[in-house]
Amino acid sequence: MDRRRALTLIGGVGLTGVAGCVGDDGGIDATASAATIPEEQRQGYEADGPEAIEINETIEVSGVSRDVSVSTWSVTYSAPADQTAMFLFSTPNVEALGVSVNPLARLSGADLIVRLLNEGLGRAGEDMAVEGVEQETELTAAVLGEERTIPVFSATLDTGSSGSASGIEGEQNGEVEIRLYLLSITHEEDVLLAVGFHPESVSASDDITSLMESIEHPVEVDAESTTISSSQ
């Protein structure tokens, strides 16, 4: 997918201040290593992916426009019977003078949740939108060998059903109250982002936390068969 906007970075930045592969034209290219959850630890959740997503933008560095292209890996884990899902992204940690120029890594909180859901739901072909995202509490989980904080949010999911039944538990007039769990960490040279969600009426907090604790990164991806193997 192609998204372009101007990002102004304050202060002088030479090419040596950019973390990423700089091309002859001054463009910045970076590719993430994939992240995944081993099949034996998915608790019956179905995997869709991993799939490569191309995000392209134009940034302005010291008054000079440069193209930034980041290859991000995306995979969806879902349990249709429980109406629960988690989107997992691995995106390169591209920086200039310590400031991220990766559009996903620059976001946080509600803005990040909305962007990740838009990416994940759009990839799944779902015409849904989330609104009214508010943090309620937070959890802790051991992810990739460290204790991580996982903010927990409440929100309203617009199912796009225009009043007709979508089959999602708790739906009223095309809207469902949902619970969201956000993971945002840096690991090696990538930023790992995950957002899990389920209807408020469904109890799946432990499942989503367990999925996050089972994340492996980096893994190697077979582009043709989308099979994966650990590169650790």
Keywords:
232 residues; disordered C terminus; globular; Protein Transport Mog1p, Chain A; mainly beta; 10% helix; three-stranded antiparallel beta sheet; single chain; ten-stranded mixed beta sheet; DUF6517
Number of helices: 2
Distance between the termini: 30 Å
Low-pLDDT segments? 1-19, 224-232
Mean pLDDT: 81
Q: What is the third-level CATH name, the topology?
A: Protein Transport Mog1p, Chain A
Percent of sequence in beta strands? over 45%
Name of the CATH first level:
Alpha Beta
Task: Give the helices and strands as they follow along the chain.
Answer: EEEEEEEEEEHEEEEHEE
Helix proportion range: 10-25%
Cα-atom radius of gyration: 18 Å
User: Which structural category fits the helices and strands?
Assistant: mainly beta
Tell me the count of domains. 1
Largest sheet: 10 strands, mixed
Query: What CATH architecture would you give?
Result: 3-Layer(aba) Sandwich
Pfam families: DUF6517
